[in-house]
Amino acid sequence: MRLHTHEWGTGDRIAVLVHGIMSDHRTWHRVAPVLAGKGYRVVGVDLRGHGASGRGEYSPEAWAGDLVDTLPERPELVIGHSLGAMALAGAVERLVPARAVYCDPAWDIRPRVVEASAYFAAFKSANRAMVRSLNPRWDEADVDVELATLADWDPASARVLPGIYAVSRTPARPVVPSLVILAGAGELLRPGLDEDLVRRGFEVRTVEGAGHCVYRDDFDGFMGALDGWI
């Protein structure tokens, strides 16, 4: 599937941004302009089932294959968050970026989160008060974006998650130089995953106090964690 994309900047180097579940390219509205200011042509995608992209079968293989079908080969930098990090990990061997950054990647999540994921679809109808209460550190622009992206999201993409996480999705090794940025206050990932990732060859940095959507919870902390990678 050819995905909908949005671009910022006209630099010679390409950076790719891949969002998490329930979101789309608009979630990067603060990150992308900073990268464009550093000389990148930034390409944000809408994953299958999200934003203006098509709907269809939902699986790790489909999400990864769509990225390969849509994006230019050998970008300078790819950044994926949560579900987007899982999709990127499945595509990275074919995209061959110079560097990959995975933000709180949904590779190996806590059993109680797997059990609850079947109910993610109900979040489609979340209102402003609910989004604000769950994300007290977000600014109003990010709350606006969340409501807009929820409106354009297919909740069927969440109903497949329990089956997907019947097995771990953690890569055996980094295919390219790879950084994992973890949410210090996140509750998604399996405890001990950070040490496991270091053993597998990933560089791991943690943004203390940040929740799962690190770049919206602590934008400065997230950009600081990218030091040396962008």
The general outline is globular
Order of helices and strands: EEHEHEHEHHHHHEHEHH
Please identify the top-level CATH class: Alpha Beta
N- to C-terminal separation?
Answer: 29 Å
The third-level CATH topology is Rossmann fold
Name the CATH superfamily classification.
Answer: Alpha/Beta hydrolase fold, catalytic domain
Stretches where pLDDT is under 50 for at least 5 consecutive residues are none
In DSSP terms (H or I, runs of 4 or more residues), the helix count works out at 11
- Class by helix and strand content? alpha/beta
Percent range for β-strand residues: 15-25%
Question: Can you tell me the number of structural domains?
Answer: 1
Briefly, what is this?
With 230 residues, this protein is of the alpha/beta class.
Question: How would you sum up this structure, described in words?
Answer:
Keywords: Hydrolase. This is Alpha/beta hydrolase. It comes from Streptomyces argyrophylli. One of its GO terms (molecular function) is hydrolase activity. Pfam families: Abhydrolase_6. α2 (60-70) packs across α3 (83-95). The chain has one domain (5-226): Alpha/Beta hydrolase fold, catalytic domain (Rossmann fold, 3-Layer(aba) Sandwich). The radius of gyration is 16 Å and the shape is globular. α9 (193-200) links the parallel β6 (178-183) and β7. The chain is built from eleven helices and seven strands. The model has no long low-confidence stretch (mean pLDDT 95). It is an alpha/beta fold and 230 residues long.
